[in-house]
Write a structure and sequence with these properties.
The structure is a single chain. Helix 1 crosses helix 4 and helix 2 packs across helix 3. This protein is of the alpha/beta class. The protein has 3 domains: about 80 residues, Arc Repressor Mutant, subunit A (Orthogonal Bundle), CATH 1.10.10; about 100 residues, D-Maltodextrin-Binding Protein, domain 2, CATH 3.40.190.10; about 100 residues, Periplasmic binding protein-like II (D-Maltodextrin-Binding Protein, domain 2), CATH 3.40.190. It is elongated. The strands form 3 sheets. It has a 5-stranded mixed beta sheet, covered by helices on one side. A 5-stranded mixed beta sheet has the order 9-8-10-7-11.
Length: about 300
């Protein structure tokens, strides 16, 4: 439905005159003549079909309808002013701000970010990590990677990666006195926990193992630290396919057995619909999706 709007050029004249209760002061602030202010307000009154000012010989005052209208128009112009400041706020040219979780940044993004830099040397990437959802405008975020349902209000979300969960460990744990060859061998090793919803209790039940305490072992709040512990042979981690892909590709981690669970949530690339007009955002989004395709190809060839 089309908005019913007054002549927009008349509103600054009305708002200023209402604040000063003076056409002369309004004219001085807006760098217009007294006559231009008077004509603008008369035009507005004609359009609205109401009288906004009582005009005296040397003064003006607002009518009750004018006072009510001035309060609403003043608030609306303040909102327009604030939105204009946000839209026109300068951002450093060539700087791309990415919001994501600590685990995704440390285990997926950072190990391959050099490839983006090689292809786009004019774009400087700034990574903001937080467990909270970023506000794109307030926080100055250009693009985000989020783990969840993909249903985020007011933004575009594109699937980046599905997530499978499976045990991973250092290659060193495949040999020695108690080599990992089948799920039952986990009773000889430390379980590493990182707080992910799919935990060892779920995985062990799916694997048919009932004589291992799923709550034993070492716990981390960070997927980054939990994965590093597994890399250094401190135990076996339930790895998320997206976060351990680089370590599996490099041989720092291995999968001792094949059982896996598919997570219901996924990783998504998220951005404002207007953001792709910026070359830096479009380039990073395309690079993220291409890197995910490489991961998927590696998984299919395993």
């Amino acid at each position: 439905m089309a908005r019913k709007l007054p002549p927009l050029t008349t509103l600054p004249a009305f708002d200023t005159a209402a604040r000063y209760l003076s056409f002369t002061k309004a004219a001085a602030e807006l760098n217009l003549t007294h006559g231009a202010i008077s004509r603008a307000i008369r035009n507005l009154e004609d359009q609205l079909g109401i009288q906004l000012f009582e005009r005296g010989t040397r003064s003006v005052s607002l009518t009750p309808a004018g006072a009510a209208y001035a309060a609403e128009i003043g608030a609306a112009l303040d909102q327009i002013s604030a939105a204009t400041l946000v839209a026109s706020a300068p951002r450093p040219a060539g700087v791309l701000t990415v919001s994501t979780s600590d685990g995704f940044a440390g285990r997926w993004l950072v190990p391959r970010l050099y490839r983006f830099h090689r292809a786009h040397r004019d774009i400087d990437v700034r990574i903001a990590t937080s467990g909270l959802l970023a506000d794109f405008v307030r926080d100055g975020i250009d693009i985000a990677i989020r783990y969840g349902s993909g249903e985020y209000e007011g933004v575009v979300s594109e699937l980046l990666s599905e997530v499978d969960v499976f045990p991973v460990c250092s290659p060193e744990l495949l040999k020695g006195e108690h080599p990992l060859r089948e799920p039952a061998d986990l009773r000889h090793h430390t379980l590493i926990h990182d707080g992910f919803p799919i935990d060892w209790a779920t995985w062990l039940e799916r694997a048919g193992i009932s004589d291992i305490n799923p709550n034993s072992g070492v716990r981390f709040d960070s997927a980054t630290y939990a994965t590093e512990a597994a890399v250094h042979g401190e135990g076996v981690l339930l790895g998320r396919s997206t976060l351990v892909s680089a370590d599996l590709a490099s041989g720092r981690l291995v999968r001792p057995f094949g059982q896996e669970i598919k997570a219901s949530s996924r990783y998504y690339v998220v951005y404002l619909a207007s953001a792709l007009r910026q070359r830096k955002v479009r380039a990073f989004r395309d690079w993220l999706l291409a890197e995910s395709d490489i991961d998927n190809e590696h998984r299919r060839s395993e």
